[in-house]
Write a structure and sequence with these properties.
The structure holds 2 protein chains of 2 kinds. Chain A is built from 17 helices and no strands. By secondary structure, chain A is mostly helical. Classes of the chains: A mainly alpha, B alpha+beta.
């Protein structure tokens, strides 16, 4: 708290130097007014929730209720990882010294991307938390292809995912090894492919490309705390609507498409892989927990198709495409999806025939 | 047509604060669900602690974003097309956000059960019980077996000698057997391995002619009795539970099985 006070004090003196006529008492008063608004708003939400909880008249017909339950389930399941991702993105953008990350990485582009693949070991987020983090790294100076390598590798090569996958499958049938190696290979393949693109900026949405060009400390004398909070507000404004839309799409498809359509394809070496990739695309759960999701299917589906699910799912699914669209152009995403789908299917086939 | 300044101002504010508002809604809903022990309607219990910790962190940030507002606005003014798109996205998000705080939380119902075949062979046999392992189980322990335990045994063997004489006492919701909806129903539960998204229905078949006179689909019931050869001609189940007693009960606090 004391450091916050100090920061505000130093900010005020900065602002005074910046040429704004600042009435400290007035600013302070407005801050507390807005804090009160925030607290009242949150208490109001709690109150509303508690009051409406027992009103069975507000219940929906079964189909609509189940659609809502499934969508909320996707949101509630991804939310902690999104928050973790935003917090880590703030740490990287605001609190880690500019040059440090760039300095410790190798210069050779292949080694550099390989090293970037392992950053996830220190920043254990799943794919949805990874989008804000990758955006942060690009703002920090990563090239687009490097940040793509990070985006694709980190959800798979990170301690939480490896532990949960190990808990679910152990070392059986090469599923864990297939997942880690497959994720690494695909991430580096994509990084290499997109690094061949002459104009890296054209892969990004114009809005985000503009954001990357703005130098990040703009010398307004804004304190780090303020910058962190502003980043939280901005990232959640971009990520949350995308998450909601992805969750709605995933919920709607699940309450419309019978599961048995996919499961009946389970024992064919090729069809089982395509079915599993379709399932991964639709259900949109995070990589940190998807091993438990797929565990019940392990006895009917071939191991290669499980690997395809575990490699494809963290990179491409409905929710992820909505999130990625905040940063990349539609054309980039179509290319990305095609390459990743082919590569994961290939890895699945290899595991099916080897294991 | 020049843009109406009040509308532009409103859109700009909406664009600025939509994330914080949506975040508040999700976080409040999550914390309330956790406090009333209903978060398990959406996710597996093993994620509850982590989810609550991250929700509290987000709540601190929400409070801070009201307190420490930026002196300048760095957001580029949105184009018209972006305005339309983000208004549509915002509208959809607002509907779901409203659903999060206004609609009472509920478990999945038989509507989802119909989408996902009950007792599907895709289920892993490590969940529930195995025939080999229950050889020496006492009657008292059998009476405690859940719908998941029995359904996993029924999937493994259809020999009546294995089931006969064992006491059954299970709780679940009613769903009709699609092959003989008048005489057969399932005492059903959903099994969760990660979150409600992967819920797999399991059930114990019950033979009770004209059961619709006593129960409705989706009602929670407790059925006790023993397994016999299924008297139903049209059902595909070869063994069914013949109830000694069947009564309506409250929905249990943990409606899903793990």
């Amino acid at each position: 708290m004391s450091s916050q006070l100090q920061d505000r004090r130093s900010r005020r003196s900065h602002e005074a130097g910046h040429g704004h006529p600042v009435d400290a008492a007035k600013i302070r008063r407005r801050q507390f007014v807005w804090l009160t608004v925030g607290i009242v708003g949150i208490l109001g939400l709690f109150l509303l929730r508690a009051v409406t909880a027992d009103q069975s008249a507000l219940g929906l017909p079964d189909k609509a209720q189940d659609f809502l339950t499934l969508s909320i389930s996707v949101i509630v399941e991804s939310m902690p990882f999104v928050i973790l991702g935003i917090v880590l993105s703030i740490a990287v953008q605001v609190w880690v010294p500019d040059t440090w990350i760039m300095r410790v990485l190798p210069r050779n582009p292949f080694l550099r991307r390989a090293a970037i693949s392992f950053i996830g070991v220190f920043l254990p987020v799943c794919e949805c938390g990874n989008v804000p983090l990758a955006r942060g790294l690009m703002v920090k100076g990563f090239t687009v292809s490097e940040s793509m390598t990070f985006l694709l590798a980190a959800p798979i090569i990170n301690p939480i995912t490896i532990i949960t996958t190990h808990q679910a499958f152990g070392w059986d049938n090469g599923i864990l090894v297939g997942r880690i190696v497959g994720g690494f290979v695909i991430a580096n393949l994509i990084g290499w492919l997109f690094s061949r693109h002459a104009e890296q900026d054209s892969l990004l949405t114009p809005k985000f490309a503009r954001e990357c060009r703005v130098p990040d400390s703009h010398g307004h004398g804004v304190s780090r705390w303020q910058e962190s909070v502003a980043l939280f507000r901005r990232e959640s404004s971009i990520i949350l609507p995308a998450l909601f839309i992805g969750a709605v799409a995933a919920g709607a498809i699940q309450s419309l498409v019978p599961r048995s359509v996919l499961v009946s394809l389970g024992s064919n070496p090729l069809w089982s892989i395509l079915a599993m990739m379709a399932l991964a695309f639709i259900i949109s759960v995070c990589s940190n927990v998807d091993a438990f999701f797929i565990l019940p299917f392990a006895s009917t589906f071939m191991p290669g198709s499980i690997v395809s699910f575990l490699v494809f799912g963290p990179i491409i699914d409905i929710k992820m495409l909505a999130l990625l669209r905040t940063t990349f152009t539609a054309k980039t995403l179509v290319q990305l999806t095609a390459v990743v789908a082919l590569a994961s299917a290939l890895i699945g086939l290899i595991v099916n025939y080897v294991a | 047509m020049s843009p109406d300044p009040t509308r532009t101002r409103f859109l700009r504010h909406a664009q600025r604060w939509r994330g914080v508002v949506l975040m508040s809604v999700v976080v409040v809903a999550t914390l309330w669900l956790a406090a009333t022990n209903q978060l398990i309607l959406y996710i597996h219990p093993r994620y509850v602690v982590f989810t609550v910790i991250m929700a509290v962190i987000a709540l601190v940030f929400v409070g801070a974003s009201a307190f420490l507002r930026e002196p300048h606005d760095h957001d580029a003014p949105p184009t018209r097309r972006q305005n339309v798109l983000s208004a549509a996205a915002l509208g959809l998000s607002a509907v779901i956000a409203l659903g999060l705080v206004v609609v009472p939380p509920a478990t999945l119902s038989s509507a989802t059960l119909e989408q996902r075949a009950i007792n599907d062979s895709g289920l892993n046999d490590t969940q529930g019980q195995s025939v080999a392992a229950v050889g020496s189980t006492t009657d008292a322990a059998f009476a405690k077996f859940t719908v998941l335990d029995w359904s996993s045994l029924l999937r493994q063997t259809s020999e009546l000698s294995f089931f006969s004489g064992k006491p059954v006492d299970v709780v679940g919701f009613v769903s009709a057997d699609p092959d003989d909806p008048d005489n057969m129903f399932f005492v059903s539960r959903f099994v969760i391995t990660c979150c409600a998204v992967d819920a797999q229905p399991v059930g114990v078949p019950v033979y009770a002619p004209n059961w619709k006179d006593d129960f409705a689909v989706d009602q929670w019931v407790r059925v006790a009795g023993g397994f016999e050869t299924n008297p139903s001609r049209s059902s595909t189940q070869s063994i069914a539970l013949l109830p000694d007693s069947a009564k309506v009960v409250e929905q249990p606090g943990e409606p899903y099985l793990y």
